[in-house]
Amino acid sequence: MHIYDTVTAALADLKKRDFTTDFNIAFDKIKCADTDRCFSPSEFEIVEHYRFEGNTDPGEEAVIYAVSSKDESMKGVLVSAYGMYSDSMSDEMIQKLRVQQ
Predict the structure, then answer these.
(1) Burial of 37 (0-12, 13-18, 19+ CB in 10 A)
(2) What residues are paired with 75 via a beta bridge?
(3) If pLDDT is split at 50, 70 and 90, which confidence band does 83 have?
(4) Which of 56, 40, 41, 46 lies closest to 5, judged by CA?
(5) Contact present, 47 and 67 (Cβ < 8 Å)
(6) Which pairs from 29-32 meet CB under 8 Å and 24+ separation?
């Protein structure tokens, strides 16, 4: 697993490693804004994750997930804020994105 100092550095490196799709949370699935393709929690895997605490910049409080569809047709990143900026999610999505230590 890689170590990054900032969200920006993590996103840039993941993009270089072919995680090129930008995903967003859509309550009970993740969605690619460019193609409108969606994946339920059972249709994608979390390959890597990075948590940023935002000690100096509250805008850096996020978890970055490197995800791949199970059919391997898409790889990308999902940036999820936490705290007051977090998105509304289904229980199944919360369980899927729970960071495993």
Answers:
(1) middle
(2) 68
(3) low
(4) 56
(5) yes
(6) 29/93, 30/67, 30/78, 32/74, 32/76
Nearest to 53 by CA among 42, 64, 41: 64
Q: How far apart are CA 72 and CA 62, in angstroms?
A: 25
Least confident of 2-6, 42-46, 81-85, 94-98: 81-85
Contact of 83 with 60, CB cutoff 8 Å = no
pTM of the full structure: 0.85
Backbone angles phi, psi at 27, to 5 degrees: 60, -70
